Amino acid sequence: MRGVFIAAGVAIAVSIMLTPYLIRFFSRQGFGQEIREEGPQSHQAKRGTPTMGGVAILIAIWLGYLVSHGVTGEPVTPSALLVLFLTTALGGVGFLDDFIKIRRQRNLGLSKTSKLVGQLLTALIFGILALRFGNAEGLTPASTNLSFVRDITVLSFGVVGFVVFGYLVIAAWSNAVNLTDGLDGLAAGASAMVLATYTIIAFWQFRNACSVQSVAGCYQVRDPLDVALVAAAAMGACIGFLWWNAAPARIFMGDTGSLALGGLLAGLSIVTRTELLMVVIGGVFVVEALSVALQIALFRTTRRRVFRMAPFHHHFELAGWAETTVIIRFWLLSAMCAALGIGLFYSEWLTAAAGQ
Questions:
Q1: How confident is the model at residue 307, as a pLDDT?
Q2: Residue 278: phi, psi to the nearest 5?
Q3: What is the rounded distance in angstroms from the CA atom of residue 45 to the CA atom of residue 38?
Q4: How far apart are CA 178 and CA 271, in angstroms?
Q5: What gap in Å lies between CA 186 and CA 73, rounded to an integer?
Q6: Are the beta carbons of 260 and 54 closer than 8 angstroms?
Q7: Which H or E run contains 155?
């Protein structure tokens, strides 16, 4: 438990102290955000705000994780390293996207094809490696089964099917967080709540792991404690970054941060065997992504728009809501989704423990 607190504390401190230096450095370099012309006009005042703040989040996550291990002396594990690889690699794709936007001074960076290729290569490497590194009990970081709170053994993808499924999960969550990152602090705040939830889930799996005590309701998960450290460090990094990213934002995380955090959430759901539960925990991200898909589908078929603008948060802005009102209410929705997710997770454990 001490390692979890150290990881979170160090990440918060690093993120809070490092971000102002990035703000000054990016401002001197002219690394300012470009704003969509068709977006809410109130956002035009944000043009030029430093972006690529996701760099601070990534550095804080790594330092929080490594310092925690240095203090506790616990060994690093394949599950945690694979999730960190996924997070960092997608952060690299986002960094290229942000850098191209800045260099070309437009709101378009990497092409859709280039971004998808970057996500595909990262997901393939993660998916293939996640089925290796079996421990003494034969557990690998990921499982070929679909999962809710634990593996659903009757729904197995096989190796190839899992790699394809892993790509879909990673692409979906990285793009969902990317779409949510449209208001000051919205994505960072919502991510912090989801990551806090996964810190609890992974730590609970560690305390009730079958390798420790093979009793009813125990969890067959590899390296849950180390995964909890990653989640705690990422939560701390988001909270520290939110200090500077909350409205009015002095820096944006950019695609560097949003793609990285989306990949992190996808990786956590896979290694904790909670892919379907993640749909509940990250409900705000799901709604944001679905709002874009629904808007595009209806416009292409009927030439009508169901929302004033997608993603969903812009619909409320154009309806006259203040930006901070939208942000706070979406944070509340995110907190409710996280609480519901924890409730479902715990109730399943109570049922499993009592029914066997």
A1: 77
A2: -60, -30
A3: 14
A4: 22
A5: 36
A6: yes
A7: strand 151-156
Q: CB-side exposure of 287: number of CA atoms within 13 Å?
A: 15
Identify residue 190 by its one-letter amino acid code.
A
Task: Give the pLDDT of residue 298.
Answer: 85
* pLDDT above 80 (res 130): yes
In the predicted structure, residue 216 carries a pLDDT above the cut 60: yes
Helix axes 323-355, 186-207, angle to 10 degrees: 10
Q: Which residues, in sequence order, are bridge partners of residue 145? A: 156
Q: What single letter denotes the amino acid at residue 180? A: T
Answer yes or no: is pLDDT of 269 > 90: yes
Distance CA 73, CA 4 (A): 13
| Helix boundaries (H) for 181-274 | 186-207, 224-245, 254-271
Cβ contact 156:230 at 8 Å: no
pTM for this model (two decimals): 0.93
User: Domain count of the chain?
Assistant: 1
30 phi-psi bin (left φ>0, alpha ψ -120 to 50, beta other): left
User: Whole-angstrom Cα distance, residue 180 to residue 285?
Assistant: 6
- Cα 87 from Cα 262, distance rounded (Å): 8
Q: Report which listed range, 36-40, 50-54, 164-168, is most confident.
A: 164-168
CB atoms inside a 10 Å sphere around CB 40: 17
Over residues 277-295, the pLDDT tens digits come to 999 999 999 999 999 998 8
